Every structure is written in structure tokens, then in C-alpha cells.
Amino acid sequence: MIIGFMLAVQFQTTNHPVVRDTRDMWELREDLKKEQELQRQLLEEIRVYETTLESYQQKRAESKETALRETVEELRKEAGLTEVRGQGVIITVEPFYEENYVGPVIQTVSPYLLKRLVNELNMYGAEEIAIADQRIINTTVIRDVNGVTKVDNYKINSFPLQIKVIAEDAEKLYNRLKGSTVIEDFVLDGLQLEISHPVNTVVIPPYNDSLPIRYMKIVKAEKEEK
To answer: Which residues, by range, are in coiled-coil regions (predicted)?
Structure first.
């Protein structure tokens, strides 16, 4: 058995001789240099990919931030918190006294008339409205407080009263307003409306009161579980 095992080992050794690297030192150095160059190229490619990835992630973060800023700005515009410029008309309201008029001095415009005018303007395509430089927004309240009309918290108690209007088609708004019966309603209250011809630039200021916020509350951030 022992003799057979030794013969088998000798046979395998004979059939699979040890392969020695017969390359000379110069060839080994050249191969080493090639391997080193390949490794350098691979490292350079990795650095390029890492730089590209980092740049992409940075641009992605900046893009999200830019998109967020643009969304916030758009929401501010929709809420009436930014100044607006555009073509439109300017309406001037003043007391209208007939000859030999004897009676009280008109000091304000009734809330009914102002709301009627605002509704008419909206029907005729008004996009933005300001009464006495008080921006009209969705939550604006026009009401009577102790005999004085107030637009939100601003008192309407002096004349002439300017109402600025911006519209996409200022000419159409002007023509429809000139033919409206709302002018006669103001005359019945001793007031006259002077409507300017369409102008290229009407400036309407931002809403300057605090916005009422409902259905919203502050939520404290929960601590993450470790």
C-alpha cells in the first residue's frame, strides 16, 4: 500500500511539474509598471465618479431648494403679499353735490357700494384691486364700524378715494365699467366715479395686514428613537 501511494505521488508530480516564472527582471518591472498604471487609472476613474456623484447630489439639493423658494414666492403672490404691476384703470371716488345742496357732508362710502363695485370689477376681469392702497384679497372684509366704512382694519373716511385695478384686458374692463349701473348707484349716494382710460402701469401694493390662519397648529418634532 505504501509503495503504491508513493508511486501515485511521483506519477502526479511528474505529470504536473511546478511552473516557474521565467521572465527576467526587466519584464517583471514592466508588468509591475503596467499594473500600477492600471491601478492609477482605476483610482482616477473612481475620483471622477465620486466628484460627479457629489456634484449631482449638490445640484439636486440646490434644485429642491430653488423649487421650494419658487413655490413659496408663487404662494406669496397668490396670497397678495407681493407688489403687483400691470395694465389697468384707476377709479376716483368723490362727493357729488348738486347746486343749492343743503345736508350733511359725505365722509365715507357705504360698505354696500364698495362691495358692489368690487363684485362688478371681478365680473369684468379684474385680477388685482386696491382700495385706498389697501390690497383686496380673498379674506378681505368690508364693513361698517360705528358709521365708518373699513376695509379690513383701514378706515375709509376721506376723499378723493382711489381704487386701483389691474386686468389682463384693461380696455374691456374700462368699457364694461363705463356702461355699468354701479355708477348710478354711487350717484344716488351723492358720490361720483371718475374712471381713467386704461394705463400701461398700475402699481398695487402688497397686503400689509396679518393673514388669518385657520385649521393649522404648531406641531413639535418628535425625537427619533435610538
So the answer is: 25-78
Q: Which residues form the domain of 156?
A: 84-98+105-204
SS3 79: helix
Residue 9 pLDDT greater than 50, yes or no: no
Assess whether pLDDT exceeds 80 at residue 25.
Answer: no
Cα–Cα distance for residue pair 108/110, rounded to 1 Å: 6
Residue 8 has pLDDT above 70, yes or no: no
pLDDT in tens, 46-70: 787 777 777 777 777 777 777 778 7
Task: Report the alpha-carbon distance of residue 112 to residue 118 in Å, rounded.
Answer: 10
pLDDT confidence of residue 205:
95
| Between residues 14 and 163, the one the model is more confident about | 163
d(CA 71, CA 78): 10
68 in the same domain as 127: no
Grid coordinates of 162: 382711489
Using CA atoms in the order 123, 124, 125, 131, what is the torsion angle rounded to 10 degrees? -80
Residue 50 and residue 144 share a domain: no
C-alpha distance from residue 58 to each of 27, 55, 69 (Å): 46, 5, 16
Residue 193 CA to residue 205 CA, distance in Å, equals 22
Neighbours of 133 (CB within 10 A): 14
Cβ atoms within 10 Å, residue 78:
11
Structural contact between residues 144 and 155, judged by C-beta atoms closer than 8 angstroms: no
pLDDT at position 203, please?
Answer: 97
